[in-house]
Amino acid sequence: MLAFRSLSRAAPRALPRVSRASSSLLARLPATRTAAVRVAFPRATYSFSTSALRASKSEVDAELSAKLESEIQFEEEVSKEEQMPASIKDFLASGQFEVVDVEGKEEVKLVKKHGDEKITVSFSITELPYQDEDLMEDDQAFDDAENLDNQPASQDRNASSRSAAEEDLVDEDAEEFGGAAPPTHLTVVVEKPSKGPGALSIECTAQDGALIVDNVHYYADANQAFASTPEASHARVDAYPGPSFATLDEDLQVLMEQYLEERGISQGLATFTPDYIDYKEQKEYQRWLQNVKNFVDL
């Protein structure tokens, strides 16, 4: 569902870039063609600008509030029809971790005790790597569309090229969202408060139900692992990060993975995390809509 909602919300983002590409194409057309285009669409441009000037603040506020309300109702209906994924129910029922989920916050923490150790797993609902990559690819696609005017073409051909670029963008997004779920980045911090101030901070990637260890850091002060203060953040930057996990001896890698599995950092967590991100993102989006509407209505 995250993929579907993200695609539906992201669709309008293409429109400004299509307009930008269209404007650029028109700007570089010969004068006679440009004039023809301008004569063809005078009324639409003029009516938009004047209507915007005529709209009063109260009218705009009322329309915005009404639109927000319709979005809220739509999302509530979607939420009623959706069921909590079994992966979330099973993970919560296992009682392995306590979920620390604060309303309005993007970070989620999972906390547990393992003997004399305190284990904290954290991840963010806004850290979706494919979004930035898609934006870069989309920009490149529309930049390519802008360059199409280097070849002689009629106005209809330019329009067809723009339509083809839009269709390719939609097809690529549909294929992307219909495939594997995007990776989720987790940070696992293992502390031993009763024995020493140090901590291990393990960076992992969860994808397709598998958990991959990326890096293992050691910090002499556990505060550096969380970087909760400016001083801790500065000390963290100066600390030696350790080698890339993939470059370690294979036996050492296997033992480190077993070390994590004994502490519940396993396949179940890799399955739970992306589903919970989807679940929380939906709740936060609905809360955001309501907060914005409440502010507009003041």
UniProtKB/TrEMBL annotation:
One of its GO terms (biological process) is cytosolic ribosome assembly. InterPro entries: MAM33 (IPR003428), MAM33_sf (IPR036561). Residues 166-176 have a biased composition (Acidic residues). GO terms for cellular component: mitochondrial matrix. It holds the Pfam family MAM33. SUPFAM superfamilies: Mitochondrial glycoprotein MAM33-like. It comes from the Eukaryota. Residues 146-186 are annotated as: Disordered. Residues 148-163 have a biased composition (Polar residues). This is Regulatory protein suaprga1. It comes from Pseudallescheria apiosperma.
